[in-house]
Amino acid sequence: AIIVYRLPWTWKCSKLLMKFIHAGLNTIAMILAIVSMVAVFDYHNAKNIPNMYSLHSWIGLTALILYSLQLVLGFAVFLLPFAPVYLRAFLMPIHVYSGLTIFATVIATALMGITEKLIFSLRNPAYSASPPEATLVNCLGLLLVVFGSLVLWMASRPHWKRPLEENTKVLRPTGGTPEGTEVESTMTNRSNADKSDLRINTEAARKQNLKLDEAGQRSTM
Question: Where does the record place the region Disordered (predicted)?
Fold first, then answer.
């Protein structure tokens, strides 16, 4: 969802379509996060394990709450056509920064979670003995770090930023006039029409002057 605006082959699509894709992916992630949270509490209650005692659980629940607020505010301000332009411009940097912060927090939560699981689950051999399970999960943690770093790098590169609508030729995938180009087309047609009218008026004035000159010459003769 973060890099959906950063992919060059999506710049030809309308920005409204990319907004729906961005919101849809975030909604799916939110649903999966809620299902996972419910599953964790059910498992803890079934096994008589205390809830919300570890740093992993604190940061995870905080990330879920912030993510839900981010999703609701994103829908209300940027997707629905009710928020004024100045409010969107003011909240956009905050929206981007908070999204990247929540993403980094989720990566950290996952790393703490898999480490905690290994410490509690690996008894014989222990985690410190580096059994194959520990090596596999450690490699998974490294892949999570690489994945998070790549996403944050792509999101922070200025040349990967989606160009402004007026600086690109935007093509809607379903055909029709893309967002932001209808006004430009209307202004171009109006300008061409004005130039055509000016040429017609100039030509008519020139012919009128010729007729007056001819009439003056005949009157003199």
Answer: 166-197
pLDDT at res. 214? 47
pLDDT of residue 206: 57
* pLDDT tens by residue, 165-211: 654 444 343 444 444 443 334 444 444 544 455 455 555 555 555 55
Tokens of 82: 């009710």
Q: And the tokens for 115?
A: 């480490």
Residue with token string 């905050």: 94
Encoded tokens for 24? 């849809």
Number of domains comprising the chain: 1
Task: Answer whether residue 23 is part of any domain.
Answer: yes
How far from 102 is each of 51, 68, 186, 219, CA to CA, in Å? 22, 10, 42, 90
The torsion angles phi and psi of 34, rounded to 5 degrees, stand at -65, -45
CA–CA separation, 128 vs 138, rounded Å? 12
Q: Which residues contact 27 (CB under 8 A, 6 or more apart)?
A: 71
**Percentage of the chain surpassing pLDDT 90?**
61
Within a domain: residue 68? yes
Angle between helix 85-121 and helix 132-156 axes, rounded to 10 deg: 170
Contact between 110 and 148 (Cβ < 8 Å): no
- Mark the ranges of the chain whose per-residue pLDDT is less than 70: 165-221
Output DSSP code: residue 162: P
- Per the listing, tokens 């943690």 go with 141
Helix (H) or strand (E) holding 47: none
